[in-house]
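Just curious: can you write whichever protein you like plus the matching structure tokens?

***
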Amino acid sequence: MVRAQTTSRTLVAAYFGGWRVPMDLSQQGVHGDNPWGLYPTAKLPYVNHKMLNYPERFPLIGPAPVGYDDAQQWVIDSEIQTASSYGIDVFAMNWYRDEFLNQAIINFKASPKKNLMKFFLQWSNNANSTNTSPPADSREYFFEGMRRAAAHMTDSAYWKQGGRPVFSIYDTTQIDRIILTTMGRLPTATFSSINEATLAHEAFLQDCHNIVRNVLAGDPTGGITGKLNAAVVRNGTVTPTRVNTLGISGNFVQSMYLMIGTADIGAWGRCATVQGMYVYSIRTGTFGGAKRLTHSYGEMMTAVQQNYDLVLPAMKTYAVGKAWWPTLMAGFDMRPWGGTAADPLHDNSLPTQAEFDAHCAQVRATVDKYPTVTGGVVFIYAWNELGEGGWITPRRASARRGWSRCATASNYSPPLAGAAPRQSGVA
């Protein structure tokens, strides 16, 4: 019997490092001081997390009766060991400009296990606060974030494509708000045409590439301190530095393999500064002629297929040569974090084992159908978004689904006790 040839795959799983105990001070109003705890409390009356009521979601590696502390080195060491043995090649580390989720990245870089897989930064940059100096929706804030990101890209475990470090911007709406404000328009305005939007995006992203180029060339300032501006960038307790807002030094060089989190192929797909696109999660589809959040995992599979059928053929026409990473959804149920208030039925989007296996086969078939556009890369939501219901990390209660049975994982099963984990095939 001759086996059908399938496309080689690179499995990228989103990693949420938000299980630090105590939680970063800036996030305690959202996640509490102990993200595994039960809220509200007298100290934190506006937090609505209830992870303590869902112990079945606690990772298998965590010490009972709690989860784990992402500030501890052994946590990422164990996660790397486990993920690599299950066929995961890369962690896309959720990152907020060194201000949130950064400890897991620091520990990855220090891990003795980091030779087993790669990581890259996924800037979860959906800024929603102006209580910073400069405001979070400003060129100064964003460019300083790019400088900090570039400093992580020099690590030996940082993932590269085509010899360039991979970097993804989770949400493009912040970029548009910054550009429109800089142009003297309301941040909620729209561009006059696709061509205007593309030119504006290109100019902004060229500056981002140049900042990274400067850092990688040995200039830790990123070249953004050459011209002073009244605004300052605060870096924790470090003395604020003034930031250039009038143009980044140097001629444009493509320094990153830049992925953009958007399905707006028209405006972003034409940018030479962008190498590809993806979406972090697919939770909305069209059912009975109406667009809404999914109400079951079966509907989530339908929504995923609708996304594939819309985007992948369009990429071949409108974004020739660009990559699209198809998203594999591990599920969604945000009840431990207060639930989906806008549509509570959305929290029913968790799979049975049979449904999850079928979804993995669905993703695998898509990669084989579009080998050039996907490049064989699958983006998985997620390794450990435990509060939202997106996880494939082994848990104490593993009856719901097992990643090792997923066809997308190239039929890798958990190693036997004492067996060596699979080495990553990522270049």
Residues 194-216 form the longest helix (23 residues). Residues 10-409 form a domain with the TIM Barrel fold (CATH 3.20.20.80).
